[in-house]
Automatic annotation (TrEMBL):
InterPro entries: AspA/AstE_fam, Aste_AspA_hybrid_dom
GO MF entry, a single one: hydrolase activity, acting on carbon-nitrogen (but not peptide) bonds, in linear amides
A GO cellular-component term linked to this record: cytosol
Residue ranges occupied by any AstE/AspA barrel-sandwich hybrid domain in the UniProt entry: 44-123
Record gene name: Aspa_0
Protein name, entry field: ACY2 Aspartoacylase
Amino acid sequence: GVEVGPQPQGVVRADILDKMRKIVKHGLDFVQLFNEGKEFPPCTIEVFKIMEKVDYPRNKNDEVIGIIHPKLQDQDWQPLNNGDPLFLTLDGEVIAYKGDCTVYPTFINEAAYYEKKQAFVKTVKMKLTAKHIR
């Protein structure tokens, strides 16, 4: 499967549809070339590995008491460092990220994930190496 976004629910965006078509075409081109016997050299790519789903801050009654901090909003795939703001409580308190490494949040404040108790997903950047293929 291919998931391309972000895209609000019930909305069709031409730019996102175009990206999805390009990704699928590249995948099909690879399969065709592989089936024709083309050899591929080793390569390294940068990827983001999902580490943890992060919920909104909640009170003892499981009610949301904070929102995504304005400095985090719309910053998908951007580095988040120890001390950077994550949430802003309804009382105006800033809740900062407390971590021992830089992470890259994604799916920040996505409406589809509210019911799943997910404010964003923490990912880490890593490199994958593919061996020679023939």
